[in-house]
Amino acid sequence: PTVAVIQAHAFGGGLELAAACDIEYFEGGFSLATRDGRIQVRRTAHPKQRRADAAHELVHALGHRQGFEEKIRHYHAVSEELTENMDEHLEEIVDHGMDLLLMPDVLVKEVLEEHGLTAQAVWELSEYGWASLELALRRLVHFKEGIPCAGFLSKGNYVQFAIGNYYHPFYKGQRLPEPHIREESGITLFSVPDSRVVIGFLELPTNGA
Predict the structure, then answer these.
(1) What secondary structure letter does DSSP report for 158?
(2) What is the mean pLDDT of each run of 10 residues along the chain (209 residues)?
(3) pTM of the complete model
(4) Measured between alpha carbons, how far is 94 from 60 in angstroms, rounded to an integer?
């Protein structure tokens, strides 16, 4: 199936995602992609997590089917460091594919048109894409090439998760920036409803902006 066909089914659950890719889906004790082209998803996981697991394992299964993982292991082994960490490198690529399936481009663009690259956009994408805040934040951070940005999730005034596409000032355990620092730097915040979680997002201007 084409990317467009797969993404058209991305708003369903794991079973719908698997059907769009013509891959057998079943549930078991843990999540994995089998070498014979099937995927197993942990049955005890929350439905939202099962959907994310299904997308992750689907990317693995498609990679096995097309021989992509073997090609990546061969052509991406350009340094000793990367070769030694090839499994981690592959997981990063698979995670990117998972994000594309869970939150298709059309959805991300609609959210950005309404809210821009802001903390609230992370929340909206999480809700409409039925994905975790961590995945929605990662999707937005890496959505537009050439736009340096970063974000974090905090709870109790301390950062619990941080990610960026450049060297950024956020790190786990960091106390939330003071209001005057947020105002000066352009950090946007959004308090997640019925939760103590606060989302932070920072977009930096590109050269010449």
Answers:
(1) E
(2) 51 71 86 86 88 89 81 77 81 91 90 95 93 96 90 94 89 86 85 95 71
(3) 0.83
(4) 7
